[in-house]
Amino acid sequence: MPGANRWLVVIPALALLAFLSFWSVRWAWGDAYATTALRLITKWDAEKSPPALETFLWVRRALERAQVLAPADPAIPELLGLMHLQQSARPEFSELALEHFGRALALRPSSPYTWANVAEAKFRLGQTHAPFEEIMLRAQALGPSEPETQRMMVELGSALWNELSAPAQREVKLALERAMRRNPLETLLISERRGRLDMACPLAAGDVRLEKSKWPKVCEELEAGA
User: Fold this and answer.
1) Bond from prior residue into 50 cis (ω within 30 degrees of 0)
2) Tens of pLDDT along 184-204?
């Protein structure tokens, strides 16, 4: 009987070990697919060159396989969302991006990057009514020091400045200040594109990183013409 009792303990333990081994292999394959996809998506974003349709579909299939293998990994639907969001010429892809970001948030609701991506997708679709402002502010609250959150706040906040509430405008200004401290060149380019150099230029004064750029002269001329 003692031997039988011992097997009553060992057999479930072996079954659990087999189960964990099975899922660890599935997660490892899922992670491999996701890592490859991330490398390609990052490359496309850095080069500002969307992939050929065949390449896009191949990466999407790889991520869909990864999602089956690792359904609880929030990074996979987020990557699916990002690669659809990069296809800015196709509005229907922004809709698909929102669906994927929604799945990512269901698994990891505390990610500021995902909330920032949701705001970007909604902006592209013209969905800037409520709860758009709340989404922006949630991203800001969860990751005020995150570069992507700061970029989103400066970009979209500047574009929608006159439509924002006073509290939201204050948060955009705070994000702008942080972004200028982190990367003034990038932030000034965004502000120029969105027609809000009047907010960014005062924060550029005395920044030695800008001395050899066009910005001291641009900001001086802006101030003179104000």
Assistant:
1) no
2) 999 999 999 999 999 999 999
Q: Convert 48-74 into a string of H (helix), E (strand) and C (coil).
A: CCCCCHHHHHHHHHHHHHHHHHCCCCC
Q: What is the DSSP letter of 214?
A: S
The amino acid present at 34, given as its one-letter code, is A
Phi and psi angles of residue 54, each rounded to the nearest 5 degrees, phi first: -60, -45
**Total-model pTM:** 0.81
Structural tokens at position 50: 């969307």
At a CB cut-off of 8 Å and minimum separation 6, what does 139 contact? 112, 113, 115, 116, 118, 119, 149, 152, 153
CA 137 – CA 116 distance, rounded (Å): 9
Instruction: Work out the burial of residue 49: count CB atoms within 10 Å of its CB; fewer than 13 is exposed, 13-18 middle, 19 or more buried.
Output: exposed
Instruction: Give the integer Cα–Cα distance in Å for 209 and 57.
Output: 41
Unique residue bearing structure tokens 């970029």: 151
- Residue 211 has a pLDDT of 94
pLDDT at 63: 87
| pLDDT for residue 190 | 97
Long-range contacts made by residues 159-162, C-beta under 8 angstroms, separation at least 24? 159/123, 159/194, 160/123, 160/128, 161/196
pLDDT at 130 over 80: yes
